[in-house]
Design brief:
477 residues, FAD/NAD(P)-binding domain, 5-stranded parallel sheet, 16 helices
Length: 477
């Protein structure tokens, strides 16, 4: 059997590791080849984890950064004693530069490649972009790359990463505008120390931009421009607890027994987690509903003060939204999915919080007045060498605008549009109405954020869980 993996970032690493970790090797003990297609110079790292500033940190504790599904200690074990140099004092956990985490991905991929090769599964890398896929010779798939070459495979796994950052205000090409902030080292080189900087967005990417500016002792004004004005939650100190009710197995059992799954079923599982811990479920949900009512500054201060709060509600939600959520989402009724989409900003804020060390930097800049959070942004327009901004507070200007609006969950990357069109045209996959791609043929698999249907962006924990399930499917004839 010949397997093609399109994309060479974290999702591909998780899939290779899962295939190598199986007792009998891939495809039920048979042998074959694995071909990874990745045109980027940063093989295995993907866009987020390439070389960059040391101030640009991973946004998640080590247990949820393990690329090996089910092994929450895999990344921490690789990090070893190096983790001592990167401890977040509030979190009590190491938070490493993204480039160092990229080294972990490279190491994991290289070990998996070596193990697979020893089992008769040689892995080769093709530095080209796949532009077309279709059926050839009955059961074989044909993949065409942008250098005009054709490659054959029996199975294909799409590991394409996240979508392209949207240019919401049509500023591409304008002097002073940065459409993609990564790598932040290059972005900061284009900003003078006293420039007024406006950052579009208020999520984790925007937080990275602000923290990088602070690390370079930038002295100008910084404004986060957001329609909602909502900052991410702040991670709480991990307590080592793993969910026992809110699991894929329990969700699958409910669906199998009843033939359907509802949001009330998931709420019931979460309620059991809190009840077992002696906590009040209704009090927890009341806190979530009122989270945005006291403004971003007071809310951030309150979040920082709650880092050591022993209550488990948010901890359970933050883990299971990525490990269980993508699986449960596909089983939910459309009415339940629609309700969740209406609350996507709150859900994203809870599911993808910022780390305390970064939250502390934001708090310091907010208290000093150097950083402000704007809401109700209506327009950003270039004029006379600056940018004119209209928001709920009136008008303001900035010399530099940095786009930190994350791509929508399950968005198709720009470079993969032709490939996805060809898969759809040949009936191998279909575009999901709410985003992403769903295989329509058992020879096609999707790992990572492109997996269709969810409403929050995938995390490493979610990608690792998907990779484990996909490895099992690839081993099944």
């Amino acid at each position: 059997m010949d397997i093609a993996i399109v994309g060479g970032g974290a999702a591909a690493v998780g899939l290779l590791d899962a295939l190598a970790a199986t007792e009998a090797g891939a495809a039920g003990g048979d042998t074959g080849t694995i071909t990874v297609f990745e045109p980027s110079p940063h093989l295995w790292r993907g866009r987020p984890y390439g070389p960059d500033l040391d101030a640009v940190l991973v946004n998640t504790p080590p247990a949820l950064m393990s690329v090996r599904g089910g092994d929450f200690g895999h990344f921490a074990a690789w990090l070893g004693e190096r983790g001592v140099d990167h401890i977040d004092p509030l979190l009590g956990q190491p938070l490493v530069p993204r480039a160092l985490y990229g080294g972990y991905l490279v190491h994991t991929a290289e070990k998996a490649v070596a193990a697979l090769g020893e089992r008769g599964w040689p892995v080769r890398v093709v530095a080209a972009r796949v532009t077309h896929a279709c059926l050839r010779s009955g059961t074989r798939l044909s993949l065409r790359t942008d250098d005009g070459q054709e490659h054959r495979a029996d199975r294909v796994a799409l590991c394409l990463g996240g979508g392209t950052l949207p240019d919401l205000y049509g500023l591409a090409g304008e002097t002073g505008f940065t459409g993609d902030p990564y790598p932040l080292a290059a972005t900061l080189d284009r900003i003078a120390a006293g420039d007024d900087v406006a950052v579009i967005g208020s999520g984790l990417t925007a937080v990275d931009v602000v923290v990088a500016l602070a690390a370079h002792r930038y002295s100008g004004r910084i404004t986060l421009l957001s329609r909602s004005g909502v900052l991410p939650y702040v991670w709480q100190r991990p307590d080592g607890r793993r969910p026992t009710h809110m699991t894929v197995e329990r969700v699958a059992g409910l669906h199998s027994a009843r033939g359907h799954l509802t949001l009330d079923d998931l709420v019931g599982l979460l309620r059991k987690e809190l009840t077992d811990a002696g906590e009040d479920f209704d009090e927890f949900t009341d806190q979530l509903r009122g989270a945005g009512g006291d403004g971003p500054v007071r809310r951030l201060r309150r979040q920082l003060a709650a880092v050591d709060d022993p209550r488990i509600g948010r901890r359970v939600l933050q883990e299971t939204s990525h490990t269980v959520g993508p699986y449960a989402w596909r089983l939910l009724r459309e009415t339940d999915r629609a309700w969740l989409r209406r609350h996507v900003r709150t859900a994203t804020s809870v599911a993808s919080p910022m780390v305390p060390v970064n939250a502390s930097v934001l708090m310091r800049l907010l208290d000093s007045g150097q950083l402000t959070v704007s809401s109700g942004v209506q327009a950003i327009e270039p004029t006379n060498g600056r940018f004119r901004i209209r928001d709920a507070g009136g008008r303001r200007t900035a010399q530099v605008v940095v786009n930190a609006v994350n791509a929508p969950a399950q968005a198709v990357p720009y470079a993969a549009r032709d490939l996805i069109r060809s898969l759809s045209a040949t009936g191998l996959a279909v575009r999901h109405p709410s985003g992403g791609v769903v295989p329509a043929d058992p020879r096609v698999h999707v790992v990572g954020d492109l997996a269709g249907g969810s409403f929050i962006t995938s995390s490493i924990a979610g990608v690792a869980a998907q990779a484990s399930r996909t490895a099992v499917a690839l081993r099944t004839h």
